[in-house]
Amino acid sequence: MALKKGVDVKPATGKLGILMPGMGAVATTFIAGVMAVRRGLAKPIGSLTQMGTIRLGKRTDAKTPRINEYISLAQLDDIEFGGWDIFTDNAYEAATRAGVLEQKLLDQLKDELEQVKPMSAVFEQAWVKKLNGPNVKKGATKMDLAEQLMEDIKRFKAEKGCDRMVAVWCGSTEVYRKPTEVHATLASFEAALRASSDDIAPSQIYAYACLKLGVPYCNGAPNMSLDPPAMIELARKNQVPVGGKDFKTGQTLMKTILAPGFKARLLGLQGWYSTNILGNRDGEVLDDPESFKSKEVTKLGVLDHILQPELYPDLYGHFDHVVRINYYPPRGDNKEGWDNIDIVGWLGYPMQIKVNFLCRDSILAAPIVLDLALFVDFAQRAGMHGVQEWLSFYWKSPMTPSEQLYPEHDLFIQLMKLKNTLRYTKGDDLITHLGAEYYD
């Protein structure tokens, strides 16, 4: 597909502030990781923005620049870190407590990490039953709390000298609640904030505060932060890019790699049983059935969307999909996921696949935080607002711009969509993978 011109993207000049609601294992692994990369102590493995390439033109053209050389992205040296947490630990203390990174590396970064201190958080224990902490805002109404968050954002931007801001939720999973009438419109949502409605979650207050100030927002948990029509209305009104939800890290990442392969070869599926053991703060929160319900919804939808049972009823019309998460403190952040997959081959003969993924949850999530922050900032400068479907690559449960559109879960289609979006902004030909004999 030949394009005449690209998109006018404002340059990534000045500092970019990255704010994170929730400064636990994921956020501090991300912060310390970027600091380590900036000092040349480690490599940004897993980050598309830092290590990924993009092919331009025909294969014979041999043009494959790095993505961060191809488009205008904020430089790592220009990033300032901030956020909110219910605990007062600075980033060094929180990273030490999380136990994800080796203490030797953290000690090399100690002086810099200690400067990153959390602002007091908006928190309501009814939404995260397994946690409680002292560093919590108080306000007459939930609108008052939103206004306090907006003041935090303005103050951080001024004190750090940031030209632009983005926010990425790195906090805990809230209990599962469906949107109600208070979420139907921006007007009803703001009225409910002033009335301190029980239907409004803390994560939605963060999203509202950021969008109200024109700060791009990404939702890294299965919380219903951006889903309600009121939030989409606000994002469009203020021309802010948004994305979500729930970082695609361990077991779901494997599903979006394996399931497309089964479908491509038309292998049937009888059942997919998944279980996890996890011992970090996320595991503790998910030990609550209502919080697990939020996670379960995002995990269960993946296979149906990839396999399309309505199109392939003989292959995928009646498979069992079970997901379990078990809190096991000795494992810490090193999550272990077991998958038993019962597939069906020629003439209906059964086969099995076993997967045992001993992963590190925050190690997989940290480069996602970086990529989303840089890409959503790019989207803002490119004038792209509303749901950024091209970033589905990073989500367990990708949002779509319309309820009429089904989300794309196939990892390889997601990556093609992401890179073609970047090519489009530069006015370069989109890659269709047609052979040279068709278009030369």
Describe the structure concisely for a colleague.
The protein has 440 residues and is an alpha/beta fold.
Structure notes:
With 440 residues, this protein is an alpha/beta fold. The chain folds into two domains: 15-247 and 363-426, NAD(P)-binding Rossmann-like Domain (Rossmann fold); 251-358, Dihydrodipicolinate Reductase, domain 2. The chain is built from 17 helices and eleven strands. The protein has helices at 25-38, 48-51, 67-70, 91-98, 103-108, 110-113, 142-160, 186-194, 202-212, 229-237, 251-264, 281-286, 289-307, 313-316, 361-381, 411-426, 436-439, and strands at residues 15-21, 79-85, 119-120, 162-169, 217-219, 241-244, 268-278, 320-327, 336-344, 350-358, 386-387. The protein has a seven-stranded parallel β-sheet, sandwiched between helices. A hairpin with a 5-residue loop joins strand 9 and strand 10. Helix 1 packs across helix 15, helix 7 (142-160) crosses helix 9 (202-212) and helix 11 (251-264) packs parallel to helix 13. The radius of gyration is 22 Å and the shape is globular. The model has no long low-confidence stretch (mean pLDDT 92).
